[in-house]
TrEMBL record:
PANTHER family: 1-PHOSPHOFRUCTOKINASE, 1-PHOSPHOFRUCTOKINASE-RELATED
Protein name, UniProt field: 1-phosphofructokinase family hexose kinase
Record GO cellular component, one term: cytosol
Family assignment from sequence similarity: Belongs to the carbohydrate kinase PfkB family.
Domain annotation Carbohydrate kinase PfkB: ranges: 23-306
Record InterPro entries: Carboh/pur_kinase_PfkB_CS (IPR002173), PfkB_dom (IPR011611), Ribo/fructo_kinase (IPR002139), Ribokinase-like (IPR029056), Tagatose/fructose_Pkinase (IPR017583)
Classification via NCBIfam families: 1-PFK
Keyword vocabulary terms for this entry: ATP-binding, Kinase, Nucleotide-binding, Transferase
Annotated GO MF terms: ATP binding; phosphofructokinase activity
One Pfam short name: PfkB
Length: 318
């Protein structure tokens, strides 16, 4: 079983202007859609559409529109009660291939709501399950929340992945090697946060074929206790460090409609491959295939298996 935690879920509204975005101007929406969102929910949708058992865990009021969207998707989920409404994240698509995101902070969880969410996740997890802790933390949750959850979930025999940024990521890095996730999924910006360097420069290095710094940073995290480090590098591809080695692949070619949810789709692809017993190179290949499929779809659309094209031949050991 795969479980995901989305501590700060969202309704993802995407509007396409059909033209350029002009600051201070008046725009008319050409197309719009609203989809269930939040990184863990996105990952769970990818896993669910691949036919693997999954449960998405999240906080939400019983009458929140997000839960109705999850029901419509048929996504198995468990929601702990909270009093604040689920936030709305707005994605504005404009030409030339520009994505602008405007995210609400989310509802604050009080101590009782935070405890209820944690216990719901722990009750759902069984020995051998894979649990993915994804995204930002809801206001009110301490930065060390993911460190605490990794420790408690390991005590239950679960294998735990984390995809986060900023203060929660810094807290996780500071807890190494004493408390370490089984999978860490940074993008270039987040790897830069760990290293104290410019993530944009790291991504450009990868695009230019300079992979040594990214490889060494990912292997360092791996040697400090992280089971596998999956670094997504946007259009430059991705790198995986695990089992004492590193693999790299450029992104497969494909159209770009929306980058929203691409990293989460890559995480889903990795978990799907891992659940099926794939070797590291095949895991990286499927992760990038899912991420590439996602950027070719509108809004926060998570790909289905028939939309994913895998080219494992592009993966190489570093």
């Amino acid at each position: 079983m795969i479980l995901t935690l989305t501590a700060n879920p969202s309704l993802d509204r995407t509007v396409d202007l059909g033209g350029p975005l002009t600051p201070g101007g008046v725009h008319r929406i050409a197309e719009e859609s609203t989809q269930p969102g939040g990184k863990g929910i996105n990952v769970a949708l990818g896993v669910h559409r691949a036919g693997l058992p999954v449960i998405a865990v999240l906080p939400a009021p019983a009458d929140d529109p997000l839960l109705a969207l999850l029901e419509a998707e048929g996504l198995p989920h468990r929601a702990s009660r909270s009093t604040g409404r689920v936030r709305t994240n707005l994605t504005v698509l404009s030409t030339p291939q520009l994505t602008t995101k405007i995210n609400e902070p989310g509802a604050r969880l009080d101590a009782a709501e935070a405890a209820a969410l944690e216990e719901l996740l722990l009750e759902a997890a069984s020995p051998g399950d894979r649990v993915m802790l994804s995204g930002s933390l809801a206001p009110g949750l301490p930065a060390e929340t993911y460190v605490h959850l990794v420790d408690r979930l390991h005590a239950r025999g679960a294998r735990v992945g984390v995809d986060t940024s900023d203060a929660p990521l810094a807290a996780l890095a500071a807890a190494l090697p004493g408390i370490a996730p089984d999978v860490l999924k940074p993008n270039a910006e987040e790897l830069g946060q760990i290293l104290g360097t410019d993530g944009v420069a790291l991504e450009q290095d990868a695009a230019d074929g300079r992979l040594e710094g990214i490889r060494d940073a990912a292997l360092d995290l791996h040697h400090r206790g992280v089971g596998a480090v999956l670094v997504t590098l946007g259009g430059a591809g991705g790198l995986l460090a695990t089992e004492g080695r590193a693999w790299y692949s450029p992104s497969p070619p494909g159209p770009v409609l929306s980058t929203v949810g691409a990293g989460d789709s890559a995480t889903a692809g990795y978990l799907i491959a891992q659940e099926r017993g794939a070797d590291p190179g095949a895991r990286l290949a499927l992760a990038l295939a899912y991420g590439t499929a996602a950027v070719g779809l509108p809004g926060t659309t998570i790909p289905r298996p028939e939309q994913v094209r895998v080219d494992a031949a592009r993966v190489r050991a570093l």
